Amino acid sequence: MSFLDRLVDALAARPRARRSLTVAAVVLIAAAVATIAYPVYTDLYHDSLQGRLARQLLAPSTRQAYLDGRLKPGESLTRLQIPKLGVNVVVVQGVDAASLRAGAGHYPETPLPCQEGDVAIAGHRTTYGKPFANVDRLVPGDRILLTTPVGSCTYQVSRPPFVVLPDDWAVVANTPGEYELTLTSCQPKGSASHRIVIKASMISSTGSL
Length: 209
Description:
By secondary structure, the protein is α+β, with helices and mostly antiparallel strands. The chain has one domain: Beta Barrel (Sortase, Chain: A), CATH 2.40.260. It has three helices and nine strands; from the N terminus they run αααβββββββββ. It is globular, with a radius of gyration of 23 Å.
């Protein structure tokens, strides 16, 4: 008698074991479905939210709030484009969990986009539109564009992406006298054990920044 035949006979003689096996199978199936469905759900949520944020970014009230420095967490701050990666996402103010449902958020303790210092932006790699999914492919010379309610600027990646521990805040420390941009995300994808960091320097700007 094969192992499978013995297993079937054992389950037939033990209803409780049969029920336990059924429950375990249902739980495993549900977990697999949830694992697949969750990124899909977050991407749909992100797409819907981005439409509202895009309209908000163009509103006169947003421009005034930007000038006054009183944008709240979750409100539109700037559009970020990375031509090489096809990234085009509205970045919000704040990096708390709720704000980052937009896909990318600005560290509020760092300068506003295009201003002097180190502008820092965090983004998702596997959920909520995953705008930073492929930032590891960036190389020195690649362009990153920021468009704010009051102007725009272009940064150029200045060094290859590198990895740090999640509590290494030195990578977003201010740099007086410099015009820099720092992008951060989880590393590896789907894990918060480390952060991948992209550094860029401003090469041009327009508008009343």
